[in-house]
Amino acid sequence: MKKLIVSGLIGFVVVIAISCGGGNTSSDKSAPAASENTTNGNPSYDPHRGEGKFTKVDVGATVDQSMADNGNKIYSVKCQGCHKLTDEKLVGPGWKGVTTRHSAEWIMNFITNTDEMITKDPKAQAMLELCLVRMPNQNLSDDDARALYEFQRKNDGAK
Amino acid sequence: MKKIKISFLGLIAVGLLMSTNSCKPKNAGDTVSSDAAGKVYVAPGHYDEFYNFVSGGFSGQMSVYGLPSGRLLKVVPIFSVNPENGYGYSEETKPMLNTSHGFIPWDDQHHLELSQTNGETDGRWIFANANNTPRVARVNLATFHTDEIIELPNSAGNHSSPFITENTEYVVAGTRFSVPPDDQNGDVPINTYKENFKGTISFISVDKTSGGMDIAFQLQCPAVDFDLSHSGKGPSSGWFFFSCYNTEKANTLLEVNASKRDKDFIMAVNWKKAEEYFKAGKGRKQSVKYAHNVYNEKTQTATSEIKTEVTVLDSKELKDICYFIPCPKSPHGCDVDPTGEYIVGSGKLAALIPVFSFEKIQKAIAAKDYIGDYDGIPVIKYESALYGEVKKPGLGPLHTEFDGRGNAITTMFVSSEVVKWNIKDLTIIDRQPTYYSPGHLCIPGGDTKKPNGKYLIVYNKITKDRYLPTGPELAQAAQLFDISGDKMKLLLDFPTIGEPHYAQAIEASVIKDRSVKFFKIEGNNNPYVSKGEATTKVVREGNKVHVYMTAIRSHLTPDNIEGIKMGDEVYFHITNIEQDWDVPHGFAIKGAGNAELLVMPGETCTLKWMPDRVGIFPFYCTDFCSALHQEMQGYLRVSAASSNVPISFSTGTNIPKSDSTGNK
Prior knowledge:
Number of helices of chain B: 8
Strand content of chain B: 35-45%
Structural class of chain A: mainly alpha
Order of helices and strands of chain A: HHHHHHHH
Oligomer: heterodimer
Number of domains of chain B: 2
Structural class of chain B: mainly beta
Number of strands of chain B: 45
CATH topology of the largest domain in chain B: Methylamine Dehydrogenase, Chain H
Radius of gyration of chain B: 28 Å
Shape of chain A: globular
CATH architecture of the largest domain in chain B: 7 Propeller
Number of strands of chain A: 0
Shape of chain B: globular
Largest sheet of chain B: 10 strands, mixed
Distance between the termini of chain B: 79 Å
Strand content of chain A: under 5%
Helix content of chain B: 10-25%
CATH superfamily of the domain at 65-155 in chain A: Cytochrome c-like domain
């Protein structure tokens, strides 16, 4: 009986120690997700750029047609299941006007760093509340993401 | 009154029983030290330190546990169909279970062996034997998928398998049952065993890069029962050791008739020499029939080829390949220590454990120190091969593994214990009870050059009072010991699937980072893939209808299908177009007589379905994938054979338009 109590106590202490450690880190991580932080001007998160590897995307004056064509192909395999090219919502929002709602950096970060963006970005979270399906990370390469953006520009009427 | 008395007595009897029973757990509890819980506790969200691959025995599958927690991580289907994910039911995987006997949905999976490089486990593949319809399988440890199965001709009861050489050059497969060779008339009286039956050992070569298997050659051997085996290593590189029983060559009541001789054999095989003979064309081409099944990762489809020839080397005619070493009383385990110098034979009916010396065996062979021959194969004098004997180790020694610190640990089936002994001085260091009747045991790398002597896992045949009763059939179980100190300490019991035989364990770090997370859709070369919803379609070819369908959170495309008729064979080719980790989709349709499919991201799987009546058949995703998973469903309309309803398919819009679908 004594043994049981002792081992029980040890187990309890272990649980506490571990749960404290885990709890702290996770709350640290989730802190920037709260929407007031972004309005507070939390320097760790830029809602214009989003979170991810793209800090500055060079966008040409005119549409790079071959890049846009490539983007169209990627769209049909990996995106079309959920996104229409009109403004109609399917699983996710329609793409009409997406390049006017978000910066190139934001879109490309969202495509390639989906989970973190959904956790941190107020606009992405608002969209999740509407769609109720977390956008899957479709594992696009950097070039794929760029081509897709070019296709979205073309879809939004850029010449 | 009488009745009451009797029942009262009954109660007392029950009480007595309970009190004797209650002693057992108490004793068992005493063997567990107070810090055991902390040692096996892996906190939520944390990984285990080792993978433990455990044979499933009569389940035919392999289970994967995390250690030290004993948490079940996965069951990998190998030799048995698995309706849970469609293995053996999907059109892509059906060929994996093809044999020369046709499609075989079950087998008895006993032993596992991790691939090795330089005598150490490398975590690339794990090999598995099928005992009943003799086969060897290779499981890819990047995908945890069975990638290849090869059948063995001239064989029955593939028990001493799938043990491998130091650099995975060969996987061996020895027959437990000797049988007449496949190219001879097998319609012979069973009591002509001694004349007509042969034992066979197959050497399956393994391609260094792809892992592809091929039967390089077979050794025809005397008609004994080959039981277990292990490769030599270091100085004994190039040699393989097999335990043999039934050297009496009995064909009935083996329990008695195969237990008569005081000593059976360990057979030492110089496989380098055999390989030389094979390359020099000394083998005989024999006409046989066996299946070789390969899963192609690019097309995600298995193919089965029936092969018709094998090269057989005669161990009697070709000298210097095989030697028999007498080994007391029906040896079972045949284990080689990490240095490669000591070979431990475990005579399951013997009251001692003989340890043979490779150096002494070589000297005996050089000096022709033989006591005669057995079916033309030299028999080395016992004392000339023996390093020494472990005296009174316990009852029923079965299997031995090594801790890398100069010690061996042997399971004792009859006396239900594990016994640790020193290889050099052959003294017993420690013995601990197991619950109950241990068969195999496993130390990570415990049969390689480099064991990790932190844990020992013992696989018990009987659990009796260890778990909550579940009717007559009880769970078999593993027990985890801490073997880092002199004394072995019992830490944990955990139940296993099927019956655990041999197992392997490896540091998680060797495998976990190479684990495939999803299949790239661009690399999917399945002929029935749909790369995006735009390519989905329904195509009729005679009475075959191919449905090219995609799955993504949370809809199937197409999800309304019409124009299917009675007598059609419908093939649902489901492509999961997700490209993220841990997002499989399932597919099931009402009345399916086979199974469901679980389709991994980027994969295409095919389910064949035959309508049995006219009407509407719902289909849906079976793997909870998102908040709208319950919406991931569709309908298929089956019409009479004479109907002229055209093929149509759609998602999101009504085709044909709603007003035209009513009854006319």
